[in-house]
Structures are given as structure tokens and as C-alpha cells.
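Researcher: Quick sanity check before group meeting.
Model: Go ahead. Protein one:
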Amino acid sequence: MGRSSARLLLGTSFAAFAVAQQRGRNPEEHPALAIAKCSTAGGCQTERTELTMDMQWRWLHNKDGYTNCIQGEKWSDEYCSDPTACAKNCASEGVSIQSYENDYKVKAAGDSLRLDFPQAPRVYMLDEYDKYKLFKLKNKEIAFDVDLSTLSCGLNAAIYLVEMHEDGDRSESNGAGAAFGSGYCDAQCPHMTFIQGQANTKDFIRRPAKTPELKEVFGAREGAHGYCCAEMDLLEGNRAVGVYTAHPCSHEGANKCEGKEECGDKEKGYKGWCDKDGCGFAPYRLGNDTFWGAGPGHTIDTTRPLTIITQFITDDGTEDGELIDIRRKYLQDNVLIENAEAPLLKSKADSMTDDYCTESNKVFDSKGTGFDVLGGVKGMGEALGRGMVLVLSVWDDNLQRMLWLDGEKTNIKEDPEDPGITRGPCKFEKGSDKDVKEHLEASGEMFVTFSNIRYGDLGSTYAPGAGVFFSEQKSDIDVDAKGSFVPASEDAQPPIRSAHTVLLGLSMVVMTASGLLLALFLSRSRSQTISTAHVDTSQRAWDQEQLLE
């Protein structure tokens, strides 16, 4: 479980974009997004956040002109003679709100964020203009609403946490920092174009990979170094499947790796510093094929919006305790739905503990996983205690066709009758970039909407009235002011629904005008339109069409 290394090997269309470490001439404007911080005592309070896109989607050029720093598939000899010179000589352009919406299809309004495939980049949440927001979630929960109704097999709507540095590794050699989306890391140890203010120029070569048919191919060029950090996937999914996964690491924070021993190589038996597979809870893979899916025959009907709640339980009920359990709940049609059980496991587990992770790996006969030795649930909790950055994206995977997420099997030699082989209902032959684009042409649009993100005390984010909306209309709110939320009722609780029982109960408050009010609250005056004429957005950042025999 967890994201495939194919995303890394087939990462970058260098003709279209690349990464720089200095700020360009155009200022960066950030879409604003309202979220909520909740408590059982005081209800929910508005927090104003901003979003920025990853530097790998931005235009890279020499800082004194407009010459690409990566020319074709090689670093510029003039500007990038070594990693330090490249960071000094190259700049990344800022993006206007208009360009975010029109060119990159990132549309934020009030508490809602829509990312359209294939243009939308990966985006990160900021607390301030130059600082990522850190979520510290031990003995807490985080919830969000999501609409996956247009996302077919082969697509992945992802919302997750990574232990990036709060300042985006800003330094003398990295003037861009968090404001421009630098410093990304995750448990796959991605070979980013710049790491810690240095260009990743060493051994800038194509690296081998295998297709599901076990055919040898090569991806886009990448440098020798990876960037590793702990990762907590709150959701990776589409209409067919939904998964949450913990990826602990043996090192604190973000760390630059080199070689198989540090960066990892599962096929060759190297775990590396982070658990790339992770421990995931995927109902379909665990034997419950009716819990999540499109249509009324499923407990969770993905043709309609839903709410996902993830809880991080400690051994002593405090933020200082040891993380021992990661639990899941859902809301749909104002009904609270408990997580699915795991029919393939003897324990019938319904949450993520160390015992669950050990049992599922044994039943699935998983090879090379390092969950326990790289920290386990406790290690994941330590990262959550230090603080992690929220990431949102929608992407496809032309190499592995997203079969690791939703397919009937992941390679041609596997037998779907074996436990854990089938991840979802999607056909083995489908899921390529071509298939996804054909579906897009037929359907007209494919997007994910994340909204009403809130976090806080256990039980506080899904009580009636909890959410990102105002209790009264305000016409003169300062953009930096903290708005007031409708507090949660102390005695009302939503009804509980399991796979077998439905109890109708109280409905949550719905305010149809809330989005408009929040848009007013979060709006900023824009005195100028920033040109993005030099930015080629015709190819998305993780361009999967560079397979070479």
C-alpha cells in the first residue's frame, strides 16, 4: 500500500517545468482556504490558511533572464556547472491567483478546494506566506469532506501529511522556501530536482523500472539523491477504492538519502530509511468489496460527497502519550458510519494497530516491508507529534496504472485468488494514461473537491454543527480576523451506522450560504495580473509519457 515508486521514476517532463531555488520576477499569490480548529468544549473556530504548489510545477530559468536551466534532458552547462551554482543562478516564477485558477485548475473558494485532472499540481497548506502549517495530531482527529464522483479507475485523489520542514528548507541557497513550494519529501524518498538548497545534478540519468507485464522500461532523468520523511496518507482513492496508510521512517524530519541502503529498493531487498509500502487499511483488499464503491449497493456510495474522519489514539489519552491506534469513521447523509472490518483477518480488525499491521502482512505474505523495524505505529505517532504538513493532489500512474491502489492484481504473474492480491475491481489491462484521457474526453471533466477541513479534539469534528461556516452574517470582516463557528451541541450525537445496522437520528446543520460568506471573508484585492506567458501548462508535472524501451 502507499504510492508506487513509478511516480518517482516517471516523474518529470523537463521540457515543461522544473524546480529552482531562487524567487523569480513575478510575485507569488496564494489561494486562500478556510479550515476549522475544533474542541469539545468550545466548538470550532475559523483558521485562515493559504495554498502553494510544489516547485516542480513551476517554470525554471536563469534568474537574470528567461533561459531554461534544464535544456532538453540535461542541466544547463552555463548555469548549472555544480549543485551550488545551479541553486544560485536559477529562479522559479511566482503564480497569480488568475493563473492558479485558469492554467493550473486550482480553484479555492471559502472552505472548498477543487483540483482538476490533469492540470492540477500538488499543493501544500501554509500557515503564513512563508511558512507551512504544521498539524500535530496525537490524541487528535482530522476530518474533511470529499467528492470523488468523477474519478475513474487509474486516478488517485490524495490528501496526506508529510514531515516537511516548516520553512520549506529556506536558506541562503534556497531563497524560495515554503512560499514557492520547496522542500517536499515523503516516504518514497522522491528524487526531487532540488534538495536542501542544492540541485540534484549528480548521476542525472534514466533509471530502470518494470511494468505490470514485467517489461523493463526507463523513466525520466533524475539525480542520485532522494528526500525522505514520514508520511501519513489520510486518503488515497477514487470511486472504486479508498485507503489510509501509515509510512513511518527511522529518522526524524526530512533527510537526504543516497544509494539503495538509504533510499531503499524493495525489489533488491533494501528497506531504506522509510517504509515505502506502509501499513494500510484498504477494505476491498481486506475482503470487503461492498463497503466502498459507486452506487447504492455500497456502505459508502462514492457517487455522492462524504466525510472522512481519522483519529490518532494514544495509550494514555494525552498528546504526550504513545500512538497505539489509528481509527477511521465516515459521515454520509448525516449518518455516522464506523470503519469496515477485515474479513480476511482472523482478528476481523477494524483499525490500524501494530498487531493489525503484523497480521495483515502475514496474511498477504508481504515481502520486504519494514513497518515494524522502521518505527511502526509508535514511530508514525512521533512524526505526528513533531508536526506534519498537509498535501493535496490528484494524479495518475502510467507505469503501474494505479493497479497497486485499485486493480485486480498488480503484475501479470499474480493470482487474484491469493489473499491481498486484489486491491480493487479495476481491470488489470486498464488504468493507463491513455485510458484515463479517453474517460476524460467521454465524461467532460475529472476532479476532486476537498472541503470543510477541520481538526481538533477526539469527537469534536463530527458533532452536529461542527464545520467551517459562520454563525451569523458579517459584511466587514478583515481578512486576517478569526471568524466565529457554530459551536457543537454538547448533548446531540449523529446516528451510528455499521455494515449491518442503520439508526436514523439527528441531522447536522447545513448552511447553503456558508461558501459565499467564507469566500467574502477570505478574498483579497488583487492590484495586478501576473503574466504566466512563459509557463507551459500543457503537460502536467508528473508526465508519464516518457517511457523508453
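Researcher: Fine. The other one?
Model: Protein two, sequence then structure:
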Amino acid sequence: ELEHDGEEEQNVYDKYACWCEKTSAAKAKAIDDAKELVDTLAEKVRESKGLAATLAGKLATVHASLAQAVEDQQTATKAREAEREAFLKEDEKLADAIDQVTKAGGELDSPAAKAKLLAIASKLKATSRSPPVAALQTLESSAPLAVKQAKGIVADMKETFEGNRAANQKVEAEKVRLYKELMLAKGKEIDQARKLAREYEEEVAGARKTAARTIESREDTLEQIAADEKFFADTVESCKEKASDHTEQVKLRQAELDGVYEAIKVLESPEAREVLTAATSNFVQVSMSSQNSRASALEALRAQAPRSQLASTVLAMVQSGVSFQDVQEKIDDMLKVLKQKEEQDVKDKDECVAKTNTNIRKADTLTAAVGRIQKRLDGARQLEADIEAAIETQQAKEEEQQDLISDAETDREEASRRYESDLKDDEAAVKLLGKAIKAMEHTPALLQQRGSRALVLKANSVVELLKHIQGTLEKEIEQEKKQEDDDVEEYEKQEADNKATLEAIQQRKSDLSKDLSETRSDAESEEQDLTNEEDRKSKVATLLEDIKPGCDWLLSNYDKRREQRQEETEGLYTAKEILSGSVSPSAAGFLQK
């Protein structure tokens, strides 16, 4: 029976020892891997922080370059505006001078001039409410008088003025070209700087978020390492204690078996039989009370032995001739070991229950956290889709607004070309009329000298008609200029409004793009957090699986082991009392029942 119990207990211990070995090895490897991960994460934190600092420096440089480019644009624009204003003033003076010399050197004796006068007369008859009919008829029926002027000096002056004006216009055109090239280059530089700044800002934010997430992961890993190291230390200590207890139990059982085997060997030897036979017939009892006491104790212990393996050990020791005092001291040692086992089992049970409950609560907490993060991630992905749709809408609005601006610009250019053409015709007509008037002003005096009064009246009538036509055309020109100025002002206002609307659309699209980038970054961060929490949840589940075999074995055998220890304890106390003589054999038998 002792050997069978020993084999059964050895099998149970072997399973527990196997669990200890596998669990300790797996946990030690997990700790080593986690420490390597901590070093890797620490290096990644340093890299992320270093990258963020480097990018922040580059961003500051880009911002400085951007500010300088904008300042260069503003300075160049102010200088160009001042040069343009000076050019326009000088050009206006030269235009007036050219107009004056042109008027002075004009003549009206060409067929083209006559045809122009007739066209003006017809236009005036059609548009004027009370035209001077007689004068118009005279103008239509009479060939215009030509007055030839000395044109040499006037032509030289005109050529000089026109040359100066053309040279100024060429210089101005070159300045405009250079200014446009500068503005285009600075515009590209500003656009590139802004794009680069946005990229650096996103990269800086990404590096900082990566560093923050990595720090959090490192802290989580350190926390897990601490928990794993505690579990590992507790497991190793518990396994050592179990091994020590098992070793002691094996020694006790072996001592018990050795005692039993030795007693059997002694009692079954020929010498023992001869001694016992002689003792029954010839033995002179020196101390009858002592012999009776040992016999009584043996009888009581035999009655107690079936209840307790350790009592059987005590019986074997008594049978082998060990003194009662030594046996009682050994019993005290056995009782101490049983008490220690009881305390250790209680401690192990409490630790198993506490660890299991703690990790179950952690698992529940992490499950809830995973659910919350998943919900936030779904919200971020939905927001990302909404922002993308909004960007597409703004893109369509931008294209529509650009088409509107382009169409308005085309209409304005066409209107401007028509205005320039009409203005050119009207100004040419006014100029021609001026020449005609100047030529006709000397005619009445010549006719007066010749005594032709009727012709004088006709000549005066023609001059008045020409002046009336000239004045009418000049008013029309002023009205056309005013109307053109009003149209240009309205176009510029509308253009400014359209461009402001376009800029607002583009700004909104840019803001949405930034929001999209931030939302995507947030979604990536949520995905990383989700992965981290799921990893932590998996580690907790693994820890529960690791402690489950040992705890299950301990909890399922706890009551049985406790009952066995109680039986062993009671058996040892009874044996001790038997040896001390405080319990009779009959009482020991009663206790057995």
C-alpha cells in the first residue's frame, strides 16, 4: 500500500514538475523577448524624437524662406507699381504731343478724307434731332478744301515723339516681362515652400505621434515584463517548494518503507525465531512494566497504522527498536512538515485565486477597451469617407468657378477689343474733322476778299457743321470711355469677387485635405492602439492559460490533500499519545472506529 501511494503521488508530482519546467521556460523566453523589444522600442523612440527635431528645424528654415519670398514679391510689386505710374505719365505726355503735331500736319484733300467726311455727315443726319440740313448738303455736294501746311518741321517733331514713345514702351514691356517672370518664379517658390511646409508639418506630427505611441508601447511592455517576472519568480519559488516538499515526502516514505522492511527482515530471521522461542520459555523478565508498555504501544500502533501512512512509519520505527523518545521527536518533525504543507497549500490557493481573478478583470477591461477603440476607429473611417466626398464636391466647385472666371475674362477681352476698335474709329474721325476745321477756317476770309458773300456763308456753315459733328463725336467718345471705365470697374469687381470665391473654395479644399490627413493619422493611431490592446489582451489570455494547469491541479486536489494531512496529523498525534502512555490500546481502537 505504501509503494502504491508513493507511485501515485510520484505520477502527480511528475505532471506538476513537467508543467513547472515548460511554464518557466516559456515565461523566461517571453521575458527575454520582451526585454529585447523594450530596447528596440527605446531606440525607436530616440529615432522618432531625433527625426521630429530634425524635421522641425527644416520646417523653421522653410518658413523663413517662405516669408522672404513673400517679402520679395511685395517689394517687387511696389517697385513695379511706381515704375508703371511714371511710365503712364510720360506716355500720356508723349501721346498728347503726337496728337498735336498730327493735327497740325493733317490735310483733308485726299479721297479717303472726303469719304470720311461724307460718312460723318450721313451718321449725323441719322442720329441728330435737328441737323443743319443746308450745311450738310453743302458738305455732301462740295469737295472739301485742302489746305497744305508746311509739314517738314511737324513731321520731324512727330517722328521724334513717336520714337521716344516707342522706346519707352519697349523698355516698359521688358520691365513687365521681367516682373512677370519674377512673380512667376516667386509664386512657384512660395507654392513649393508651402507644400514642403505642409509635408514637414505632417511628418513632424507623424514622428511625434510615433514617438508617443512607441513610448506607450514600451511602458506597456515594461509593465508586462514586471508582471511576467513576478509570475516567473512566484512559479519558480512555488515549484522549488513543491520539489522540496516532495523530496521530504519521498524521504519519509522511504524511511517508513525501510523501517517496515527492516522490521520484517528482523522478525522473519531464524535468529529472531530462536530468540523469541527461547524468550517464551527461559526469558527472565527484568523489567516487566517496560516490556508490557512496548507491547501495548505496538498493539495500539498496529490498530492505528491502517488510518495513517505516517503512523505505519512510526510502527515500523518502534518495531525496529527505536526508543520512544526518538520516535516522538521524529513525530514532532513530521507534524511540523504537515503544518508547513498546510500553510503553503493555503498560500498557493489564495495566490491562484487572486491571479486568476485579477487577470480575468484585466481581460474584461481590455475587451471593453478594444470595443471602444474599434468604435472610434469606425468613426474615424466614416469621417475619412465624408471628408473625401466633401473634397470631391469642392473640386467640382473649383472647376466650375474657374470656368466662370475664364468665360468672364474672355467676354471682357472681346468687349475691350470692340471698344478699342470703335474708339479708334471715332478718334480718327475727330482728328480728321479737326484738320478739316483748321483748313476751312481760312476759306471765308479768302472768299470775302473775292467778294463772294454766298460762298462765305456756305463756308461758314460748313465750318459750324464740322465743329458740331466734332463736338458730338467727342461727347460720344467721352461717354464710350466712361462706359468702358464703368464696365472695367464692374468686371474687376466681379473678377475680385469670383477670385475671392475661388480662393475660399481652394482654402476650404486645403482645409479639408489637412483634416483628411489628420483623420487618416488619427485612424492609423487608433489602429495601432487597437493592435496594442489586442496584444495586451492576448498576453493576459496566455497568462491565464499558463497558470490554469497548476491552479486547476491545486484547487482540484486541495480538499483531498487537506483531508489526507488531517488524517496524517491525527494519526501522528494518536501515535504520540500512545507512546506517551496517555492512550490505551482499547482507546486507540475506539479512535480508529
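Researcher: One line on it for the slide.
Model: Residues 123-154, 278-292, 582-593 have pLDDT under 50 and may be disordered.
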